[in-house]
């Protein structure tokens, strides 16, 4: 049985590996700026370099963006408990983010690249010619990051203020156990303790 940290790490390593493998194949079989149409007028493989952020924003700031990515990685790890890391969905989201950020960060740091490799391009070709209209090229790491962010947003909607519960199972408390609960002082009541019996039917236990 994997721990939450192990689940996040396993998924991050998987994302990182797939991202770097696909980029290696692009470097191996496509020259820089080369394109290979898969579905005419809709999808093609490309080999483009991005020194900016998503959708090519902040171009020519590769070093600064590498620093921001490194800080984001460390920050996410330190504050992971604030991002639903105790839930499977939260662990999946964070694993995707760790792997995706690390994949693009390596691209920026490698002297042989110094830019993020984008290779998936969806587009539409207007009838009668003209410039193609399409979604900015992206890669596996970008997909992982966007999916991870989307999951965290969905989880934040589910965890609205006042709806959070303490799961007794997380503290190793079994059904029927007697628990001493310490109560803090309030305006009208002094601090004290009370006995609480865990219910016979608990979330996460049969």
Give structural notes.
This protein has 206 residues and is α+β, with helices and mostly antiparallel strands. It has four helices and six strands, in the order αββααββαββ. The strands form two sheets. A four-stranded antiparallel sheet has the order 1-2-3-4. Strands 5-6 form a two-stranded antiparallel sheet. Strand 1 and strand 2 form a beta hairpin. Helix 2 runs antiparallel to helix 3 (88-109) and helix 3 (88-109) runs antiparallel to helix 4 (140-158). The radius of gyration is 24 Å and the shape is globular.
Unreliable stretches (pLDDT < 50, length at least 5) are 162-170, 202-206
Compute the CA-based radius of gyration: 24 Å
* Element order: H for helix, E for strand: HEEHHEEHEE
Estimate what percentage of residues fall within beta strands.
Answer: 15-25%
The geometry reads as globular
Quaternary form:
single chain
Count the DSSP helices: 4
Mean pLDDT: 83
In short:
The chain is an alpha+beta fold and 206 residues long. Helices cover 41% and strands 17% of the residues.
Q: Top keywords for this entry?
A:
206 residues; alpha+beta; four-stranded antiparallel β-sheet; two-stranded antiparallel ribbon; 6 strands; 41% helix; globular
